[in-house]
Amino acid sequence: MGRLDGKNCIVTGAAGGIGLETAILFAQNGASVMMSDVNTGQLEIALAKAKKLVPGARIESHQADVSVEPEVENLVAALDSWGGVDVIFNNAGIMHMDDGDAISCTEDVWDLTQKINVKGVWYGCKHAVLSFRKHNKKKASVINTASVVALVGSATAQVAYTASKGAVLAMTRELAMVHAREGFRFNSLCPAPLNTPLLQNFLGDDQAKRHRREIHFPTGRFGEAIEQAQMVVFLASDESSFVIGQEMIVDGGMTRAYVTPE
Ligand code: NAD
């Protein structure tokens, strides 16, 4: 028996990082998985990898830009023939290279970041709820990816990104209250910095930039995407039936640290 047997799951941002690892783990736990991303080329490579790792599982792909509502609507509708959505992992997000502090962050960077990271999550929540109702679901789970920067301040400023993730936390908490009596659970995932392209491309070979962040981890290392995926499977499954409106922090102790080991 898989922990997600019979569940139809959408994963956005599934072409790499947390999204890809989660799609694979969902399928390994018995779910039918729709992998979605804006990047068609990477999505097809990710789909092939997932299918190879979990032969026989129902895994498909659907290209969508989460910041464009009709594309999200079509993505969710693609699961109508499967019996409707049970789980959506609204995980797609960006951290812009030119993000900065209140002065250096440009309006274009601000707007693009909010459009993808906040509006994209809102559209995913909205169309998932419409689908849950349409298919008369009595239980369903929405997981939205925020970040530890929604909880702790970062002196390496990325103000547009931080504000967007704070919005994800607040929105998720409120939707959790609104839909609790319908059986639709909403929770946020708060990852710490990870070994995924989103951060690693940003850090590149800059050892000083890297050390500035690693020093805050009691473990002395960044997290791995699979460590986030394990939490997402729990939130997607019925094992978390009484976990509602929470901020699930998967950070290797980073937000609990004062002085870390030398
Ligand atoms: P990633 O860059 O590996 O994956 C993000 C995916 O989102 C990419 O495949 C990208 O193509 C996709 N995407 C970007 N814009 C999109 C759009 N408009 N529509 C659909 N897809 C889009 O990064 P990741 O680390 O796996 O990040 C996943 C989530 O985790 C993001 O929301 C990110 O903000 C969050 N997060 C990451 C870290 C980290 O250190 N990597 C830490 C905290 C939170």
Oligomeric nature of the chains: single chain
Strand-residue proportion: 5-15%
Proportion in helices: 40-55%
Secondary-structure element order, N to C: EHEHEHEHEHEHHHE
GO molecular function, one term: oxidoreductase activity
Keywords: NADP, Oxidoreductase
Family: Belongs to the short-chain dehydrogenases/reductases (SDR) family.
Organism: Morchella conica CCBAS932
Layout of helices and strands:
Layout: E1 8-12, H1 17-28, E2 32-37, H2 40-53, E3 59-63, H3 69-77, E4 87-90, H4 107-134, E5 140-145, H5 159-179, E6 184-191, H6 197-203, H7 207-214, H8 225-236, E7 247-250
Parallel strand pairs: 1-2, 1-4, 2-3, 4-5, 5-6, 6-7
Helix pairs in contact: 1-2, 1-8, 3-4, 4-5
Structure overview:
- Belongs to the short-chain dehydrogenases/reductases (SDR) family.
- This is NAD(P)-binding protein.
- It comes from Morchella conica CCBAS932.
- One of its GO terms (molecular function) is oxidoreductase activity.
- The chain is of the alpha/beta class and 262 residues long.
- It has a single domain (8-250), classed as Rossmann fold (3-Layer(aba) Sandwich), CATH 3.40.50.720.
- 42% of the residues lie in helices and 15% in strands.
- It contains eight helices and seven strands; from the N terminus they run E-H-E-H-E-H-E-H-E-H-E-H-H-H-E.
- A seven-stranded parallel β-sheet has the order 3-2-1-4-5-6-7, sandwiched between helices.
- It is globular.
- The N and C termini lie far apart (44 Å).
- The mean pLDDT is 96.
- Nicotinamide-adenine-dinucleotide (NAD) is lined by residues 12-13, 15-19, 37-39, 42, 65-67, 91-95, 116, 120, 145, 147, 191, 193-194, 196-199, 225.
